[in-house]
């Protein structure tokens, strides 16, 4: 009787597996779920990138349908342009200085926010506001903060007796660069802090406690125990910051328009000025694509460093 009862059950099981649904086919289901993301990348990232590559090798201009192939002439022209050199050096300067400050501030902020204190959740929420705020709205606020007449920084320093002259933030090239770096740090700092905070939360407490038991002080525990474990997370935060800062157009264009005297242009704003406002699409595309190989190499190197560090730990 037991054998007779088992036979129908086996037949039913075989019948179920013969009529597999879409949920049972993981390979096909995975492709279908990835399809919208792949379509987004191809249509909104891949197609404009290919178009920009084609434009950079042409003499295309706005308002004209002609497309004449000029090879590397656009790249040769911008390489010999002093304004391009200034924009390239500004891009590197803003990216390196702002991200160095972001790493220091984000690490310190993650340690503070990881401590237990009243209102910690509210502070974490407020930390994220600069990252969530629209770039245009934030740039308008910072334009008033650095205004030559109504600057709250100038008035505060004046009342405190620290400032005896007056800072014309957007009228002096050095002060304008400092203002742009400050806004980049203000905008990127919350995102990096959240990433480092998440990485710090993933470190087992036993490691820190063992370091304290072994006699390690705060600084020794920080640089010899916790920072090596946080290095992969910090590398990812720096990578995002480098990409966002080096390709950003909004902050520079909304704050200074590249001034004064075209001294604060970055590659993105110079490409916009030449390609859109100047109607030279070929040269604008060449300027915009100039950092693409460099960013690819930097991204690959940083991800490889993070992987090596993670495997080594």
TrEMBL record:
It comes from the Bacteria. GO terms for biological process: transmembrane transport. It comes from Candidatus Segetimicrobium genomatis. Keywords: Cell membrane, Membrane, Transmembrane, Transmembrane helix, Transport. Signal peptide: none annotated. PANTHER family: BLR7065 PROTEIN (PTHR43005), SPERMIDINE_PUTRESCINE TRANSPORT SYSTEM PERMEASE PROTEIN (PTHR43005:SF1). It is a multi-pass membrane protein. Residues 88-304 form the ABC transmembrane type-1 domain. It is found in: Cell membrane. The keyword Cytoplasm does not apply. Belongs to the binding-protein-dependent transport system permease family. This is Sugar ABC transporter permease. GO terms for cellular component: plasma membrane. InterPro entries: MetI-like (IPR000515), MetI-like_sf (IPR035906). Pfam families: BPD_transp_1. Gene3D superfamilies: MetI-like (1.10.3720.10). The chain crosses the membrane at residues 39-72, 92-113, 125-146, 166-186, 229-255, 285-306. PROSITE patterns: ABC_TM1 (PS50928).
């Amino acid at each position: 009787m037991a054998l007779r009862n088992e036979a129908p059950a086996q037949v039913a099981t075989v019948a179920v597996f013969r009529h597999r649904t879409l949920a049972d086919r993981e390979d096909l289901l995975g492709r279908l779920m990835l399809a919208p993301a792949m379509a987004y990348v191809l249509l909104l990232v891949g197609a404009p990138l290919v178009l920009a590559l084609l434009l950079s090798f042409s003499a295309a201009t706005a308002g004209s349908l002609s497309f004449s192939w000029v090879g590397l002439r656009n790249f040769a022209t911008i390489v010999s342009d002093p304004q391009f050199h200034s924009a390239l050096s500004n891009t590197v300067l803003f990216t390196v200085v702002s991200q160095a400050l972001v790493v220091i501030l984000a690490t310190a902020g993650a340690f503070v926010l990881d401590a237990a204190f009243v209102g910690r959740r509210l502070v974490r929420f407020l930390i994220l506001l600069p990252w969530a705020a629209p770039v245009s709205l934030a740039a308008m606020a910072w334009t008033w903060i650095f205004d030559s007449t109504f600057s709250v920084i100038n008035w505060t320093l004046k009342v405190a007796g620290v400032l005896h002259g007056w800072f014309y933030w957007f009228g002096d090239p050095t002060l304008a660069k400092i203002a742009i770096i400050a806004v980049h740090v203000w905008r990127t700092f919350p995102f990096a802090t959240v990433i480092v905070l998440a990485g710090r939360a993933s470190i087992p407490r036993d490691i820190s406690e063992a370091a304290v038991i072994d006699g390690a002080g705060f600084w020794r525990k920080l640089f010899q125990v916790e920072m090596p474990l946080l290095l992969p997370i910090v590398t990812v935060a720096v990578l995002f910051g480098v990409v966002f800062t080096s390709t950003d157009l909004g902050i520079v264009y909304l704050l200074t328009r590249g001034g004064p005297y075209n001294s604060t242009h970055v590659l993105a704003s110079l490409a916009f000025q030449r390609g859109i406002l100047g109607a030279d699409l070929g040269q604008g595309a060449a300027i915009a694509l100039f950092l693409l190989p460099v960013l690819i190499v930097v991204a690959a190197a940083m991800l490889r460093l993070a992987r090596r560090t993670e495997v080594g730990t």
